[in-house]
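Re: beginner question about structure tokens

> Can someone show what the tokenized structure looks like for a real chain? I only ever see the sequence side.

Sure, here's an example I had lying around. Input first:
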Amino acid sequence: MDAVSRRSAVVGALGVAGLAVVGCTGQQPGTTSQAPSQPAPAGSTPTEPAPTPTETVDTTPRWPLTGKPLDDPEKAKRIVVAVKVPDNQNEHPQAGLDKADIVYVQLDGYPAAVGQSGTRLVPVFHSRYADDVAAVRSIRPVDIPMLSPMTAIIGNTGAAGWVLKYVQHFTKYLVPMKSYMATKGTGSYSIDGARVRTWQGNTYYDRAVVCHPKVLAKQTSRFSDGPQQMYFPWAATDAEVSTEVQGKSAKTVRVPWKTGNTWEMLYTYDAKSKRYLRSEPWGKHVLADGTRVSTDNVLVIRAKQVFGHITVKNKITVGGLGHQEPIHEIINTQGTFYYAHGGKYVQGTWSKGGVAEVFQFTLADGTPLKMAPGQTFVELPNSKAKITIK
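And the corresponding structure tokens:
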């Protein structure tokens, strides 16, 4: 199996700092480079220097997680609610994804390093809260660097022991401990009797827990001012969106999750709705109420995946005893990305610094990515996954 590098998502708990910068020119943001000024020829009349081009600053109030214009900034002053949702076929149909600002797709579990893992979803709600989100499962290590920049509360059913110890390092940025069992009696979660299952004489509730984000949001007074930064680099106008400026055709986007570039998630552009329709490996992605899952943006962030656990304080190992979990390396590192919107795509390099820092995206020509406001599905496949765009 692959060894876990020092840039692992878990290493962030051990105090690693720094930022991997991609496409750096040595200039400050918002400035432009100029050739050195030359003295005027003798006898000539000095002229006024040409004005220095400046970057237009977008001052439009926007929802931090969708980039959509916001008529009243006070409306954004509420906590982000993320929910852990299982994504195996026998755990479908799901509920509430269509109301999310962002939906992350990550590894579920199992031997991820040998390509046997399915996926788990993390819908993130801020501009609107779904009434019901189902089903609900446990936290994964990568949730910490993904959600910390948003200062979120996480709806979940718990986590492996070492993962709980890991997340407790970051309660400065997150509220992760308001699980189903920890909030009983508050109405933050409920049980859907139709999802309760019996196997070998035992009753299981693992597919039956339903989260109610509006109620869960009330279980903490922290982060009530909402996110303090824009999570993605939003374009100020439609004309500035990178796919409009230099995009190539992207009618379909395929993202594989298992060995041999199999177990593909498929996004198909629908010109009528101007959105990408999502399909799971077994067919169309449809929610419990019959809604076809779709999205404005598809962002594929390729990152190294490993499979490990902490066995000794301040040390990370692969293999051995204990409950192992899939790890996506997105702290203090970089990789490649693909961004699709409006039937077109661009690609480039991403970087991320510490746990609470947002992703930075640089296109192949060295310019910064500009995304269209709207809902975004973020896929986190392995760094070597073959992304097929046609």
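Each token stands for a local structural state, so reading them left to right follows the chain. Residues 161-167 form the longest helix (7 residues).
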